[in-house]
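Re: weekly structure request thread

Next one in the queue (408 aa):
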Amino acid sequence: MSEQTQARGDSARRVVVVGAGMAGVQTAVALREQGFTGSVTLIGAEPHQPYDRPPLSKAVLLGKAEGSAFDIDFKALEIELRLGREVVGLRPEDHELDTVEGPVRYDVLVLATGAEPIRLPGAEGVPGVHLLRTLDDAERLRPVLAQQHDIVVVGAGWIGAEFATAAREAGCAVTVVEAADRPLAGALPAEVAAPMTGWYADSGAELRTHARVERIEPGAVVLDDGSRVPADAVVVGIGARPATAWLTGSGIALGIHGEVLADEHLRTSVPDVYAVGDCASFPSGRYEERLLVHHWDNALQGPRTVAANIIGETPVAYDPVPYFWSEQFGRFVQYVGHHASADTTVWRGDPQGAAWTVCWLRSGRLVALLAVGRPRDLAQGRRLIESGTLMDRTLLADPSLPLKEATA
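Done, posted below.
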């Protein structure tokens, strides 16, 4: 924090959080939990009470829940909510945000605007084309699933697989088209993603790889090879990018993906401004590279560090072991760590079976793990990654042996 804000007591300081998703909400709550007595304002672009996103592709989408609002008493915590207010600019020299309803002053600002889905070129405004990111998106898709339409999903990433799972559960005919040669091409190595290809057929969905969308016509998706895939509705899940376009010209340093470049304390390049969650990357000492993590757990953990650094005098570093999960085609998939720097891969179990694990090692130490239907491996592996324990590769490959007993 700047000398100006350090010199003022907490009760006189005003923290403004932009973004009312998981990262923004948890930042506001963490400030109160850690004893901050100043004012806290949470600004959200959507008009809805702040809500959790994971249920959107599951219970909300299938009509098993009406929403996923956070069970938080914002009034009791003295957190001011300003919902349905779009933020359009930042003037750090004035300590002011520009919103569609006028400027908002702050002493400390937290950027938690998350990410927004990448849109399919040429599909903007085309009837029957959907995204799945917000509560309104899920509500628009519910009747599509209820009417058991023929659905084309563009993209076989995490969100594409989860939506395809829900659509099949609803009884829809589903075709997933993926430009790459396999599902999860941007997330997992080919040999790890390969066993997941069969999951689509097992569920009754058709997966077409090497399939790039040329255009969308009424009732069909036309691929670049000229083939037409029948489609009453199209759901686009080709990735997301940080929602930071509004920061252009603000002086906030952005990365090549548009993410806010935060430091190890989640501070931005501008004094009194922090960034957390999907909109920000941070340097990881553990993995010796900058990480951009678009997952729920990062949005849950990072706010505690931000709050501690706003309140405390001794900076706290943020260096988590990333974690996420996905429920798809009747399987519970969990991932922990970061495998990019690994030099060894060890399999536990048969990848054609119902439960198996992939372990990534670097210099004999576990750095990442993917568990399919083996939650105990995930829990034990996370602790082993955090501790940097040396592993025995032979013992590690034995799926009957608890992971914690496979140490060197």
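The mean pLDDT is 94. The helical segments are 3-6, 22-33, 135-146, 158-169, 190-203, 296-311, 375-387, 393-396.
Next request, please.
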